[in-house]
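Students often ask why we bother encoding 3D structure as a string. The short answer is that it lets us treat folding as translation between two languages. Here is a chain of 486 residues written in the first language.
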Amino acid sequence: MPYVEHTSWSQRVVNSWGGAAIGVLLFCGSFAILGWNEGRAVKTYHDLVQGEKNTIDAPCTPLNPANEGKLIHLTCNVTDIGTITDSFFPDVSAQTLFFYRRVEMFQHHEVSRTEDDGSGGKTTIYSCPTMRWNSYASNENANKAAECVNPPWDTNLPSETPRKPYPSSSFGAFTLNNIILDPLSSRNANPKAFPVATPQTNWYPDGTGVLTSVAPGNFPQVGNYRVSFQKDDVDVVSLVATQKGNTFEKHTGSSGTSYVLVGRGAKSSHTLYKEAQDENETLTWVLRFVGFFLMWLSLFLVLSAWTIFMDVLPCCGACLGDALRSLVCCLTLPIALTLSCWTIAIAWLIYRPLIGGPLFAAGCVAAGVGYYFFRKHRKSGKANISGDNETAPLMQGSSSTASTVPVVAQPVSSGYPQQQQQQPYPPANNPYASQQAYPPSTAPGYPEQQPAQGYPAQEPAQGYPPQQQGYPQQQQPSQPGYPQYQ
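And here it is in the second language, the structure alphabet:
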């Protein structure tokens, strides 16, 4: 049956603050990784550039003693390759430069799921729904569920491929040693399976290079093994290394970088150095990302330790805690990115002053300009808000008046803004309206207007506008502070 593991809220608090302590260490380590990586990248670059200038092309044969201790480039055929015999299966052998053996056990594969218990704790359930083949490196010998227990690995059975010692081989007048074969074994490796036809005791070949402990026609059971064999043939090798007798050693540059360049096939020294520079650049970016990720993780571990206290809240505590942790994760991302960029910029000031200095100065100028425009925009925004607040009461009063009565001009009064002069009202082509200009010319501050041509001047009717056909009688609102006109 599945194995259930419960973690109380108090234990989660201890684990959370333990993670915060680890986060502090990771935070300090991320700065060290980012700074060291920039220095390593610059030193490796300069040593490779210097090494390419000092590299000389040497023949495969004969051996030239004058090149002793010099950095040479060779492209030769690999000949006289010896035979490799498996130490555990003596009947399995191959004539190849690289021989691989992979041993796997059929095991239970354990999975888990975690649930909230409603009181701030967590419940983890372990089960084994599937089985699969696992190598010794991924051996699942610590499963927690009773149904997931796997048998221990057989100590009499080899667990990994013995790459050493390599078989004897000739490389022109030279001999390939481990300094060349170690990096060559993992560079563009293309191992191929070869069939094993010789029967072994309690092992059954399937004709594809695999020996299994499962009898033909049977299904594998937990605890069964299978062993596969592969070989990797290499015909032509190109290298750049320091000549030492009839073999090679690593070259050390002026900045302390030790290296040897190898490749499969015929390659020029320029191609080998270009590949090395590309690998250096790739490694630099990988380590930059690692440093940034460690900084991000450290900030998250430190700041998210406080969110554990939200999980004890009733009803929505678990959801609120998860939401806060998600928020912390999002907020720490730009912080970690900014700190990483500044760390790299400071490292460039040390290791690349001719490039890092101008870039650092340009960054400071850009930051200053951005801050200046930010402050300027902020001040203008405050001024606009202040002006809107001052005019808001007047605008509110005007809109309420206009919604009830026609707009009429008021005389100038102390404390109110000057209003624009109104056009004569009613229109001149209205035969029912008086030609007296509106507002009345007798009001202070309004210029006297002449009656329109062709119409005799008329006295303004009492209670303007007059009660005539087409104009409904309207009441003048009483407003405090304004005189009433008759």
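Translate back mentally: The helical segments are 9-54, 178-186, 269-303, 317-351, 353-402. Keep this in mind for the problem set.
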